[in-house]
Structures are given as C-alpha cells and as structure tokens.
Amino acid sequence: MPTHFSSKLSHDYSQLLDNADDYNVSIQVGEGSNVKEFRAHSNILRARSPYFMRAFSSDWAVKKDNIIIFNKPNITPMVFAMMLKYIYAGTLDLDKQSGSDILGLLIASDELLLDELITYCQNHLIEEKSNWLRLNIVQVLQTVIRHDRCKKLQDHCLEYICQDPQTFFSSKNFQSLDRDILYGLLSRDDLQFEEIEIWEHLIKWGTTQTSTANDKVFNDVTKWSDKQFDALKKSVEPFIPLIRFFEFSSKDFYYKVRPYKKILPRNIYEDVMSHHLAGTEPKTPNLTPRMGRWKIDSNIIKSRHAAILANWINRSGEKFGVTTKVPYEFTLLYRGSLHGFKDEVFRGYVNNQGSAIVVIKVSRVDDSNYAVYDNANNGAQFGQSDLVVKNMIGTCNIHSYADSILDTNSFIIEEIEAFKIVEKIDSSI
Q1: Predicted confidence band at 374 (pLDDT cuts at 50, 70, 90)?
Q2: Looking at the whole model, is its pTM more than 0.85?
C-alpha cells in the first residue's frame, strides 16, 4: 500500500505560493479601491482548474514580457486569496470568514469550475452559517439562483422558506423578489401555504412589477384599464400554471380570482368556473395539492382540514394551521374504499383503538362532514340517532345534539375514514 505524504506536500506548495519569485502569471482582482495583484504559476493553476486550463491556452492568454496578464474584477482580493490557498495547498479555513465572503467564494469557485470547493462552501454555509443564511436568505437566493452547481444551497433556502412562508411572503423583500426565485418557490409541492394566499401574494407581486408610485388606481381592481390588466397578465403569466386553482373554495374564487378574470387563460377560467358551479371534473391539467407541514393519509381531507380538526380537539386555545406544528398524529385505521363498507369491518378496525375521528364524504354533496367519536353499535353512531352509519347508508335525525348534523334525513356514503388520534411526545415533529 502506498504511503501518502500529503501534509508535507501541502506545506511545500504553500511556500511556493508565498515566495512566487519564479511566477509567470499576474492576476489582478477586485475593483475600485479594493484591488490587488497576485503572482502565481500557470502550470499549477491549469492543473487545478479547468477554467484556467482554457484561459491560459495559446488562443486566450494575453502576455506581456512572457508574463500572462489576467484580470478578474468580479472577485475580491480576500476571496481570491482563499482560492489560491486552496489551489496550491489544498487547505481552507472558513471558520472566521463572514457568510458574505463564503458566498463570494462559492460563486467564484463556480466560475473557476472548482467542484470540490463548490460542494464544501455550500455545506459550510448550510451547517455552520445557518443564522446568517436565515437573515440574508433573499440576498443568497438572488446570488445563487442562476448557478446550476449551487443547487444544494438553492434547495436549502427554498425549503427553509417553504416551512414558514407567511413570514417571507409578508416581508418587504417579497415585492422585489427575482422572478426566478418566485418561480422556484411556486413550483414546490412542499410550500406550506394556503393556495388562495399564494394567489393573493402573486397578484401583489405582479402589480408591484407593473405599477408606479403614483399609480393609485392599482389599489382598486374595478377601476383598472385593459392596459393595466395586460401588464399584470404579462408579469404573472409564467406562474399561472403553478397555481392550484381547484384548491380554492367557491367563495374565494368568486371574490379573489374572478376580478382578475382577464389575466387568466380562458380555458382555465371556464374549467374552474364549471367545477365550482356545476361540480364538473377538471379538464385542464390539475396539479396535486401542496403538502402541509404534516402529512395525512386521506382521500377526503387535506392538511388544512386536519388542522381544523386539531383545533377542535385542542382545548388550550392555541390555533393550528398548515404552517404550524400540530401536536397530534392522525393515523389511518380504516377506509371504506380500501377495507369495505360493512359495519363489522368498520368495528373490527376501529373499536378499542382509543380516541378516533371519523370523516365521511357524502355522495353528491360538496362539503365533507366531520365526526369525533365512534360508537360500536353500528358502523358509526353519534347521539341516539343524530348520525347513524349502516354500511354505505347514513341517516340523520336530531335527538341528542343541539343542532342537526345534516339538513337531510338520509344520504349515500361515497367514502368514510377513521383516524386514531395520538398526541405527539415532541410537538416539533
């Protein structure tokens, strides 16, 4: 097995950099008053960087008195000094460097095609500079969003925003957000935000891009001209396919989307209108719902509905939503379409499981109906006769409850699910 003397080799090459009296490259970096000349050896730079291999070729190199003259005004002297230390000695100490300088080193490494350094800088920022990243997340994203090799840092920042989008979307930085960053955010399925709020913030962002400080009419959409609608349409058009329009309630669609009808493709608008007015199935491509902070295995409800149920269960007064941490696990016990709609099957899966919630989707009725506790006498029974489930038939006759659960005496069950409710030991999960 060969013996590696890398430590001594690193030291010797470092000395070569510090005492470059036989240099054949003069590199001037920085701009303005922050400019510095570095002397180096072309063979070492070419061996370590594909960028320099090409830049110092006979086709590209500019020489004066047999010295290659090279200028990099977009790299600061501090960053370039770190790069040369890495290129010559294979050493790098980022512990005392600012987040801004490490970000600059990352971008310079991307330009000079130093893949190992790109990976290292991204990992260091994520693992050691998390607070700085959080405070400067827009600056970081604006810097790396168009650098394909910085994908890990891009994803990390976008994931962080997705976990708490309310704070980010409500910040003053959002209105001036780069469209590539916004596109990256709206493309994500893990953006933990109500879809109607995403739409409202997109409209605000779009109007900011197209309005002026004196354009007061933008505050009242009913007074907009066709020119203003056209400007907004041009601004937000690339983002429209990313909006889950079928996730909107009929009320939200009417009051918050319909006024902007002119910016929507006709086929999408008509399809969504038909869905809300006539209950038709979507014809246009329908994106899957975004995932909440916590997932629930259900064919009936989504994270936002489960958050409502959690609020009913919780008695402390704390309110939960899709973007908050919920202290309950919803574990699927039974699903009619999976296990069968027979009463005895329901009881077999649900009885003696502790606290449970039963969720019923009523056939040909828009709103789901939620129930909290199970009774073993029927498939599911609530009150003496207030809600009784027998196989796929349900009946409602007010008796024990103050109000009627449904406005109908009987209904057909399209789907029924039961969930075991378990309080989490660690509510941060």
Answers
A1: very low
A2: no
CA distance 402 to 109: 69
User: Does 295 have pLDDT greater than 70?
Assistant: no
Greater confidence (303 vs 225) lies with: 225
pLDDT band for position 426 (cuts 50, 70, 90) = low
Per-residue confidence band for 279, with pLDDT thresholds at 50, 70 and 90: confident
**To the nearest whole percent, how much of the chain has pLDDT over 90?**
46
**Nearest partner of 43 among 87, 74, 82, 78, judged by Cα:** 87
Q: What is the mean pLDDT of residues 39-55?
A: 93
What whole-number percentage of the chain has pLDDT above 70?
A: 85
Q: Roughly how many angstroms between the first and final C-alpha of the chain, as a whole number?
A: 48
Tokens 């329908």 correspond to 286
Farthest-apart Cα atoms in the chain, separation: 101
Distance CA 265, CA 271 (A): 10
- C-alpha distances (whole Å) from 17 to each of 51, 62, 83, 321 are 19, 22, 12, 57
Contact 60, 54 (CB under 8 A): yes
The residue whose two tokens read 């207030």 is: 386
Evaluate if residue 403 carries a pLDDT over 60.
yes
| Residues 6+ away with beta carbon under 8 Å from 316 | none
Token digits for 48?
């370590």
The yes-or-no verdict on residue 272 having pLDDT over 70 is: yes
